[in-house]
Amino acid sequence: MDILMDDIPYNLHTMVEIIGMENFLKLSKLYGGSNVYIPVYHRVTMGERNREIARIYNGKNINQLRIKYGMTEMQLKKLVENNIKNR
């Protein structure tokens, strides 16, 4: 198949550059014509961040974690507590 960038709507050129033409065509086959929601980066990476916090929390480093992640002590304690329950 010889699809050219000129065949793709201009507003999607950046996506093609990021994921490549082959993957773009796969997306087009699966989702073409529909509205697809792509979450913001922060939401996608939040689970990984939370697991990391729970992994490195030792009961004494709450202040360091609070500063590093820009969270309150209460938020951190709740996050760690929820991660322990979900193990």
TrEMBL record:
Domain of life: Bacteria
Protein name from the UniProt record: Mor transcription activator domain-containing protein
Residues covered by the Mor transcription activator domain: 15-82
Entry-linked InterPro entries: Homeodomain-like_sf, Mor_transcription_activator
Regions crossing the membrane: none
Organism: Terrisporobacter mayombei
SUPFAM superfamilies: Homeodomain-like (SSF46689)
